[in-house]
Write a structure and sequence with these properties.
This protein has about 150 residues and is of the alpha/beta class. Helices cover about 45% and strands about 15% of the residues. The chain has a five-stranded parallel beta sheet, sandwiched between helices. The model has no long low-confidence stretch (mean pLDDT about 95).
Length: about 150
């Protein structure tokens, strides 16, 4: 799988670990930065960078790592076609993929340990989208993105 990944300065260490983890499992990783913890990086441009790659098909999925992941989730979900989920545990990883077909994983380095982050990532990558009633809901979300009214 092709995965774009970015982190603000809070998430550089975890990003580095997860890049190695992904590459060891045969994934193609596009590391979009930041590359040092000293490089104070605003997360909105990093989010846009990763999400545009997901939307244009340059990568299959994206990941963004911040302190809590909350701001990153808000920024990513402003991009049409992105379904980003903050996943502090395995339950949320399964739901974000299985029910919401999330295409961007958001992790908070101040919330999850590196070992748990690897478990979350593995679960998120392996969980298939269920479709069915969940597809109808994704279609409704896409309609909202287009500015349509739901009835």
């Amino acid at each position: 799988m092709r995965i774009a990944i970015a982190a603000d300065h809070n998430g550089v260490a975890l990003k580095t670990r997860l890049v190695e983890w992904l590459e060891a499992r045969g994934h193609a990783v596009d590391d979009r930065g930041a590359h040092t913890a000293e490089q104070v990086a605003d997360y909105p441009p990093l989010c846009v960078d990763v999400c545009r790659r997901v939307v244009d098909g340059s990568v299959d999925r994206g990941m963004v790592i911040g302190g809590s992941g909350q701001g990153e989730s808000i920024a990513c979900n402003k991009i049409r076609g992105i379904r980003a989920g903050v996943c502090p545990d395995l339950f949320h990883a399964r739901i974000s993929r299985g029910n919401n077909d999330a295409n961007v994983l958001i992790l908070g380095t101040k919330v999850v340990s590196p070992a748990l982050a690897e478990e979350i990532l593995a679960t998120w990558l392996e969980t298939p989208f269920k479709g069915g009633v969940h597809q109808r809901r994704l279609d409704q979300i896409a309609a909202l993105e287009r500015g349509e009214t739901l009835t």
